[in-house]
Amino acid sequence: MLVSPTAAVRPMRAGEEAVVARMLAAALADDPFIRWIAGTDPDRATAWMLAGLKMAERHGLVLVDETLDGAAVLMRPGSMPLPVRENLKLLPSLVRAVGVRRVPGVLRALTALEHAHPDEPHWTGLVLGVHPAAQGTGVGRRVIAAALDVVNDEPAYLEVCEGGPITLYARFGFATHARVTPGHGAPRMTTMWRDAITRRG
Question: pTM for this one?
Answer without folding.
Answer: 0.91
